Amino acid sequence: MITFHDDRRPDGDAIRALFAAAPLRRPIHHPARIAAMFASANLVITAYDEERLVGVLRGWTDFVYDGYICDLAVHPDYQKSAGIGRGLLDLAMGIHEGIHWVLQAAPLAKDYYAHLGWTPIHNGWERLRQGWTPGDYETFIAEHAELARQA
């Protein structure tokens, strides 16, 4: 049975394994950076199948007006069948009806958000990350296959 939590932060190894399995291209080769990403977030919602981490949402919000979803990862064994992604997002959206949420979708997930009723935005600006970049999906998957099997 899937349970959702807004008060249970997963350990770094579980997050790294889930990101590798999803695959969500994040700096999983750098455990301290992953830990800092989650320590600094003020919104973390998780989904577990008993003790197995199967979904995580990480973001920031002021809890009344603006919110940003940074990560939404669901284990591939649970994608498209268990409603985990929708459940994680629904919990975030339920914090307050007046929050304007923004997210940047991974290229493979852009259709997923449209399916859930999210609207593409065209008035944003970005400044690309300096230093580490995730590279292409195939390389990421190959480099982290062993870690993904741990999820």
What does this 3D model show about the protein?
- This protein has 151 residues and is of the alpha+beta class.
- The protein contains 6 helices and 5 strands; from the N terminus they run βααβββαβααα.
- It has a 5-stranded mixed beta sheet.
- β3 (52-61) and β4 (66-74) form a beta hairpin.
- It is globular, with a radius of gyration of 15 Å.
- The model has no long low-confidence stretch (mean pLDDT 91).
Highlighted features:
alpha+beta; five-stranded mixed sheet; 151 residues
Short summary of the structure?
This protein is of the alpha+beta class. The protein is built from six helices and five strands, in the order E-H-H-E-E-E-H-E-H-H-H.
Give the strand order, joined by hyphens, for the main sheet.
Answer: 1-2-3-4-5
* Largest sheet report: 5 strands, mixed
Strand content: 15-25%
Radius of gyration based on Cα positions? 15 Å
Order of helices and strands: EHHEEEHEHHH
Helix run count: 6
Low-confidence stretches: none
Portion of residues within helices: 25-40%
Give the overall shape: globular
**First-last Cα distance:** 17 Å
Please report the total strand number as a whole number: 5
Mean pLDDT: 91
Structural class by sheet pairing and helices: alpha+beta
